[in-house]
Amino acid sequence: YSWLAKQKARFVVQSFRAVEQFLPTGRNSSQGIVEDQYARTQGWFIAQSAGNGGYDPVGSVTNEACPWSINAMCVGSHRVDGTVSCFSSWLNPGGNLLDKKNFPDTDREEPDILALGGNGVAKTYNGPTPACTSRASESVKVASSSSNTAFAESSGTSFSTPIVGASAALVHQYCAKLGVELDGLELRNTLMLTAVRNARDWNYSTLKPETDAFDGAGNLTLNAARAACDSFARVATGNGPAAVHGNGTADTSVPGEPLPPGDVVYPTTPPGVEPRNQGIDPGGPLSGISATAELKWQRKAGEHIRFVLSWNACADTTAAPNRVGVDLDVFLYSPTVGKYLYTSQSNDDNNEGFDVVVPPGWDGEFIAYVAHPDGAKGCKDSPMKERFTWSSYE
Fold first, then answer.
1. Greater model confidence, 275 or 141
2. Radius of gyration of the CA atoms of the chain, in A
3. In 232-302, at which residue ranges do the beta strands (DSSP E only) sit?
4. Integer distance in angstroms from the first to the last C-alpha of the chain?
5. Considering all CA atoms of the chain, what is the largest pairwise distance in Å, rounded to the nearest integer?
6. 294: pLDDT confidence band, cut at 50, 70 and 90?
7. Residues 23, 29, 33, CA angle at the centre, nearest 5°?
């Protein structure tokens, strides 16, 4: 990493198995600390392969996706038809992990995004994973070691991850030509905003892993990310909905405004699924960050609101294993109804967001509040002063 920093690297692609030497203390392994530190301090975009173990709740902990790093973009794999590859590892155990010492209960959702990686050998895993036994093996073309011009065929997240790393570089280059400079954190956020979901709406940070954890924010969609650059630069192209983005700071040294009181309802979530509850209730002892014009929408019933919030986790050992140290939450409020349509409140992630459909009777204005518990601490148990970035569609 120090050599890469000296070469002024901006984009890093990593692919290796989560073998035991990386796992003895969860994310507080040397690999996780160093990786998170460089992403946090150097502005790097790091793409990390999720792994090819699927998710087997009765198997090895090495099946978990990106267990030691949080600030890297965790990349899973999808097939040619866009569905999740059978082998693609994913993580949202919600208390199902066997290794409680090294991996305490967590609601992190990994991978963050999927890209084309084939399907590999058909295999059945325990748990609510995609059906694999009836799917044919698929491969992608990769460089061969036999010669400088030869290609081989293979599959795996080792091959989907470079696609995401290269795409991030292309998006950065394209945005820069339009006068919009995006660092690694903003690129991670933008790729998640513009990813395309498969069959489900994106109700992020849920307790039930089968709702989101297979594919995170969705499948990488480079054309949509390019269109987002056009929108960020206010270049009218007509290539899809207009996107907006911005940055903010969560600062506990400045008194925040309490969130408006109102019940939280989840009319668009699957039965029995609610966002992770941190004991934060609207109108309670909470510091809110004032909404800006870009965090407000006018929507009618049946229309979507998609929003992504990202920040970098602490890169030190003061946070418990798999804990981000700094935690922010998003509340989607309807002044018209006087209630909250959705809240994204994971404890252990550094991405929050949602893609919800406005239900009947909720026409009108919506406001996204970014919030944190009153008096929350930042890295190294210091007062929180944390930069975050967000993006959405107008």
1. 141
2. 20
3. 243-251, 286-289, 296-299
4. 38
5. 66
6. low
7. 140
Encode pLDDT of 56-99 as tens digits. Answer: 444 444 456 776 678 899 999 888 888 788 788 776 444 334 44
| 195-235 confidence digits (pLDDT tens) | 986 544 454 544 444 445 677 788 999 999 999 999 999 87
Q: Position 301: which residue type? A: A
Instruction: Give the H or E element holding residue 293.
Output: none
Within 8 A by CB and 6+ apart from 89, the residues are 50, 51, 52, 53, 54, 55, 63, 64, 65, 76, 110, 111, 157
Count of CA atoms in the C-beta half-sphere (13 A) of 315: 18
Beta-ladder partners of 289: 370
Q: Which two tokens stand for residue 221?
A: 């969609």
Cβ atoms of 335 and 294 within 8 Å: the answer is: no
What number of CA atoms fall less than 13 Å from residue 276's CA on the CB side? 27
> Using CA atoms, how far apart are residues 372 and 280, in angstroms rounded to an integer?
8
Quote the pTM value.
0.85
The answer to whether residues 350 and 313 touch, using CB atoms and an 8 Å cutoff, is yes
